[in-house]
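Final report, closing paragraph on structural work. Over the funding period we assembled a curated collection of sequence-structure pairs, and we close with a single example.
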Amino acid sequence: MSASGGGTALVDFMPSAGPSPALAPAVPSGGTGTFLLTPERGTWDLVYGAQPEQEGPAYNYFVLGRSFTPGSTTVHTFDTPVFGPVLDSSPGARPVAQRTGDPLDLTVPLLADGEGHAGASPLFTASTVTLHRNGTLVATRRGEKPGHASSTVPAGRAAYRPTASATRPRGSVTATCTFTSAATATATDLPLRAVRFGPDLALDGTAPAHTTSRVAVTVEGAARLSGVRSLTVSVSTDRGATWTRAALTGGRITVTTPEPGKAVSLRVELTDAHGNTLTRTHIDAYVMRAATGAR
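Its predicted structure, as stored:
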């Protein structure tokens, strides 16, 4: 288990069922912690409580109900970039976008960390969710948990465009998608889609400056099931003032990193096989450090 972000994290690791004393050792930012466990105890729960550098409440990540094979090693890295939406399609996963009758509910983890851990109370300084129906703004929510909103809309079938944005102490995420929907008799999942970025970063969440690296690009949600009609990724090193399209080959793009202290920004534009779209922008997705041996 390894930690990024700022400050120090507290880690609770305990069996999912039955009484057991919980351990909560401190793990410094950029540090690691190792736990030895007995798999025959059944499933285990891990709670990572990240402490912000500035005074404020901890923000927790949960890994619940995990089983382990004797002799195996499992690594979890928490609170590292690229922060963005995650859509969990595993069996039993909680839906993040549904419609039941007229209400339309969004509970998208907009600031999941780079490994896909969705924090219960993610660190953010501002958030907004808007909803357009047939091109007309019908709802706006500000200051709530990023990616979360509920709106009651007319029953008839219509084209919807939700936009969610969140600002962190450094960087921001904005995601807009489109789909059609009508009132439903039972809870029905909405066809959201996401794209995840996987740069190779150090435990402090940084990449070496003035280097060329490959960044994984992974499609999640409805587009993974229906297929992708088009997918374009662009890169910026001036906080989105200018963008350069990056060729996508083998599920990866190539990024040339800027000088130390600057950041790489990422933008993705996707259309699935049904014509539904996603546009997402990460400003300051991850920051550069001086390359090893640089003078």
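The first helix runs from residue 222 to 226. The mean pLDDT is 89. We thank the funder for supporting this effort.
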